[in-house]
Amino acid sequence: MNETLNKLIKLAQGERTQNQFALHCGISSAAITRVLQGKNNPSPEFLQKIASKAYNGVTFEDLMAARISPYIDIPFFKSNNKSTQNTSPTEEERELLALFGKMTHAQKIRFIAYGEGLIGAPLSQKKA
Description:
Layout: H1 3-13, H2 18-25, H3 29-36, H4 44-52, H5 60-72, H6 91-102, H7 105-115
Helix pairs in contact: 1-5, 5-7
């Protein structure tokens, strides 16, 4: 269970009931419950819907940061994925991990959001 994400979702809900909040966001109350109980990891699309109707200044960036924060600083060799647990990272993966480790928290969030197709390439990288 991601307590930071849960607190942000509840903050975004504000004074509304969970059912009212879900209706405003266009998602089911059951889906919110599954996320709050740690049964589902919310998709970026789910978090975007919450952010679009959030109270108390909760942003999509806040929600994404909370969603990925448990994974940001976990080294490759501590992965919970059984298929990679006993495998050494490739040279390319080591280089990516080294670069990722040098990024600020905000840069990590943008990197992951870009990788999930939520944002486009920075203007400096877009082709004319």
